[in-house]
Structure formats: C-alpha cells, structure tokens
Amino acid sequence: MLSNLIDNALKYGDGGGKVLVGACEAEDGVQFYVRDFGSGISSEHLPRLFERFYRVDKARSHESGGTGLGLAIAKHVVRAHSGTIHVESELNHGSTFYFTLPRQPAPVSA
After folding, report:
1. How are beta strands 29-36 and 19-26 bridged, if at all?
2. Is the pLDDT reported for residue 59 higher than 60?
3. N or C: which end of the chain has fewer CB within 10 A?
C-alpha cells in the first residue's frame, strides 16, 4: 500500500520526482504520509478519490497504465487493519496522502 502511494506520487506529482515520505506519532496510532509537489487535485474529486475505478484524469491514467484500483485497494487494506486514510490537496501545491494505523498492544507474558 505504501508502495502504491509512493508510485502515484512519482507518476502524478509533477514535482521533479520529489516525494516526501514519513511517519509520526498520532493520538490513535502511527500516522504515515506521502507528499508530492505536483499540480494537486481539485476539491471536487477528493470525495470520490478512494472509489474503485475512479480516475481524476482519465486520459493521463490510461497512458500510465492505471486501472483506478490502487487507492481503493489502499483504503481497504488500511481499514482491514482498523486504520484510516485520507488526502489533503490544493491545486498548484501538491497532495499529501495520510494513513493512520493503530498501535498494537504489547504481548502479554505468561
């Protein structure tokens, strides 16, 4: 899933290949992020971005071989691990995809 987000950032980021990847403590777990410095995603697309087969730019996705499934799969993987995923994007300022996974409790010794 992380690989998919990084791959998307490199394909669609248009920021000269610059991508930031990181993680930090969050109140409810560990938050990971992937940020690109491209043209961003219009706010009208954000609510549907994680739907199966949804593409922001159909022509460009087709050229790059995209199926419109990557973000939908990422959403299901994160949810299967009781996490959350979302995106923040502003036109001409890039996009940042965040996903948070809960901390696992320490194993109990017998």
Report:
1. antiparallel
2. no
3. C
